[in-house]
Structure formats: structure tokens, C-alpha cells
Specification:
- The chain is an alpha+beta fold.
- It is built from four helices and two strands; from the N terminus they run H-E-H-H-E-H.
- The chain has a two-stranded parallel sheet.
- The longest helix has 12 residues.
- The protein is globular and about 30 Å long.
Length: 70
């Protein structure tokens, strides 16, 4: 999960200042990713939510209706 998250951060956040990423994952936040999300570069622009994209309530919490998909 850490390597996937880091790739997402680099792909989206380093090239666009106005992007906010929501990670919706069924597992608890592990300690490595928790440390990464505390880095100021990422902490203001990434939200981690425990949940599933297959569950409507989780998508609502993630505010999927605001997502921009390219």
C-alpha cells in the first residue's frame, strides 16, 4: 500500500497544486503510510479513509461526487 500511495502522490500532487487525493482503502492505516501522511507536503492534500468503493456510504464520505476523473 505504501508504494502505491507514494506513486499516486508523485503522479498527482507533484504536478498540480490544486489536487486533493482521497485514499479509500478497506484496511487500517499502517504505520509507514501514517508517517508519510504526516509529511507537510502531503498532509494538507491527502485524506485516508477506511472503506470500500463498493459501498455507497463510503463513497459519500469520500465525496466522490466532487471527483474529477480524467
Amino acid at each position: 500500500l505504501f508504494e502505491q500511495a507514494l506513486r499516486i502522490f508523485k503522479d498527482f500532487l507533484l504536478f498540480s497544486q490544486d489536487v486533493h487525493v482521497v485514499l479509500l482503502c478497506p484496511s487500517d492505516l499502517d504505520s509507514t503510510l501514517r508517517i508519510l501522511l504526516q509529511v507537510p507536503l502531503w498532509s494538507q492534500r491527502v485524506t485516508y479513509l477506511k472503506g470500500s468503493a463498493l459501498i455507497d456510504e463510503d463513497l459519500i464520505r469520500a465525496r466522490y461526487e466532487l471527483a474529477i476523473i480524467d
